[in-house]
Amino acid sequence: LILTKLTIKYLANTLPAIGAILCLLFLVLTPYYETQLNDLGQYLVEHHNRVYRLEAKKIHAHLNDGQIDSAIKSLENLDWASVLYNDRAYPQKRRILSLLCKKLEAMKDYEKLFQLASQWRQLDDRDIEAMAYWYEALRHSPDQKKEGLQGLIKGSDQFPSNALMTTFLFKAYLEVDDHENVGKLLDRRIEIA
After folding, report:
1. Cα(27)–Cα(59) distance, rounded to whole angstroms?
2. What is the pLDDT of residue 30?
3. Where does residue 108 fall: left (phi above 0), alpha (psi -120 to 50 degrees), or beta otherwise?
4. In angstroms, rounded to a whole number, what is the distance separating the alpha carbons of residues 100 and 60?
5. Which residues, 6 or more positions from 181, have their beta carbon under 8 angstroms from its beta carbon?
6. Over the stretch 19-68, which tens digit does the pLDDT of each residue have?
């Protein structure tokens, strides 16, 4: 089959016209196939959620096996890195971030905790738990201890019912033998309860 210039021009002009006709046909027939389109959309949403749930289970397995670095690497892959605050998968990502921060704080790996809490705060700068971990990590950095402690004090004053912020502040006061402020924190916790 030898293609001449005329045949090539004819094909080049016909293909966009066929595409336009198919799009127009799709738009015209959409109201008649609304339920099928809704079913397709529902399937795609469920598939999307299922994929993230399976990935979250893998990350939880890494965490349960003590493979913190593997869990962090999984969270940094393109799929999870693209999940933002208002996305459907964000609550799963938030739970993973919370567990990771908890494990890193328990291991006293404040450098990784700072990095992870910083990423978390970039996603949601109003998340109190992310703030608490970020200030706790700052408090253990050599050059920003004061800023971390001030952040915990401010956070504890703003959110007195937040147990994590108060716990970190309590630990900070105990480390420097500030029994007066420990007593004040305990009194405030008793008032709240």
Report:
1. 42
2. 83
3. left
4. 9
5. 173
6. 999 999 988 888 888 888 889 889 999 998 899 999 999 999 999 998 99
